User: What shape does this take?
Amino acid sequence: MKRACHEYYEDDHSEGDLRKILLYGGCHALVLRDYLNAVFGDRFDCALIVNFELIASRAPFPYASLAAYDAVLFSPIENTAGYETNELVAACKRHGIPAIGFPWLEWHGYFPGAVKGRFRGHFRWHYPELLDRAAVHHGSLDDFCEAVIDGFPDDAAIDAASELSMAHVRAAEVRNDIAPVLSTAIARDFREHRLFLVPDHPGRRLYIELLGSLLPRLGVEVEEAQARFLAPPPIEPQWRWRMPIFPRVARRLALAFADTGWVDDDIHPGLLLGLRDYLAQYLGAPGERSGDAHRSTRDLSGARELMRAW
Assistant: This one.
């Protein structure tokens, strides 16, 4: 019989018996599900409910199915009427199932002023200020690139993005009673390692950090988790979109790395391009391509196969 509490998972499953785990969240939950299946497929049988798809369908959460699971991992929902996850926590408690929250993985420190919306025919993170600049620019792409690289974003915007975004992360952890895994990892590592590809797509380093905090609560010893993660996935799990980190941001934040690479798998499938190519999108010249100091092209066409094999 299962013995569970709200925080940790204990049971008397026999050796080799798979624990059934439900993940409930958005794209982050999908990646966590894939990591667990790939690295701990002999320990867990993971199911996924995508929260934004459930909400869009207007179907209720399937609370009756909770009894089939040994634990639930969820991303908190606070502001969507009828889908607040405090109800999920209460239902899990009634079933004697651990409900383990994990933070929404978003930080804007590398991307001051970026917003999500329609951009060049796609729903994307982008910079409205650069669209405004492009609208009144009448020179060449080279002139536009030089002006942007020299002056965007300004120091005040960089400082505000880093500080306000971190404050938001910490407030969400406190508000949802979640361990400060995300805020601690960002504060410790953001200068030495690139932690986010776009504001709400973390890199594999953060995903592994998060799993390292969750797995002991699912009955996996820390030593075992560390040993299994010695072989990371061959490529970023959310590699299909990557925004450049502008040189002024790298300097202001004193980053130990430079990364102006740009990936948009819908516009240029399978290619890692550079800052000049990215800025060309703002002038409405998506086909504009050339080599310069801010551009590094690499073929990513095998990325899908690499992730599938892993």
The first helix runs from residue 27 to 39.
